[in-house]
Fold this protein.
Amino acid sequence: MIESGAVTHTRKTIRDGNFRVKPGEAYTVAVPPPAPASPQGQDIPLHIVYEDKDLIVIDKPAGLVVHPAAGNPDGTLVNALIAHCGASLSGVGGVARPGIVHRLDKDTSGLLVAAKNQRAMGSLAKQFANHTIERAYHAVVWGAPRVGEGVVEGLIGRNPFDRKRMAVLRGGGKQARTRYRLIEKFGDPEKPFASLIECRLETGRTHQIRVHLTHIGHPLIGDPSYGKSRQAPRPKTTAQEVAFAAASNFPRQALHAYILGFQHPTLHKTTRFESPWPADLSGLISALRSLKNG
C-alpha cells in the first residue's frame, strides 16, 4: 500500500517503506477494498479441527502443499482455504486470502492454524515471533539417542553443497533450538533399530526438526532429503520382516505435528489442539512395536 501511494502524512504521500516515523505524528492509510483472491479457490477436502470468525485450524494430511510456489502453483492448502472460507476472509494487505503464519512441509502431517482477518494475523504472527506458540511433533527415527532427552542447537542455513537442503552451519544461518524426548525404542534395547521421539520447537526454521535429528545421527525414517536407510538385521521372524519392510519402504518423512497451542486473538484464552497419528504413521509404529516380540 505504501508503494501504491495509499499512505500520506500531512498531505504528503509516503512512498519509501523505510521512512522513519516520529512520536506524535499522524498518518492516513487509504485501505483499498479486497481484490479478488489470488491464488484462486479450489474445492479440496479439508479436515477442520476448529473454526471461528478469526481463524481456522486444519489437520493437514501428508502430501498437501501449504502455499503455492513454482513447483506447485495450485492444489494447495491456501487454494482450499480460499474456497472454504469465501466471504469470511477479510482483506489482508488488500487481497482476500488466508493468513498463513507458519508452514508444514508437504510430507509432514498434522496441525496448522491460519488467520482469517488482519487482527488474528497480527496476533498469531507476534506469538510465533516471540516463540510462545506450543508446537510438539512425533518423529520416528533410525536408531535412538543415548540420552533420553535433550536440546539440539545450531545455526541452520542453506547447505553450501546442495542449495535445496538445509544444514547446521558453523557460521551464518539462523539460530535454531529443538527440545527432544525419547518416548519408545523399537528392537534391541541396547541397540535399537528405531525409536519414537517427541520434538518441541523453540524456533521455527526451515526443515528444523529434520535437520537437527540428522545432525545428532538419527534422521527421520522415510525422509528423502535427510534420511538414510539403515541396514536392517536379517529377519528371524515374520514380525521382524514386516517391521523392517515397513521402515525401509515408508514413503514420506515420519513426522507428525500432534500438538498446537496458542493464545486466541479475540477470546484471550489459551487454545490447544491434539491430532492423532494418521493411518500410515500408526501402521509404521505398530509394525515396529512387533520387534519387541520378535
Remarks:
- The chain has a mean pLDDT of 90.
- The CA atoms of residues 187 and 208 lie 27 Å apart.
- The helical segments are 77-85, 118-129, 208-215, 238-248, 279-289.
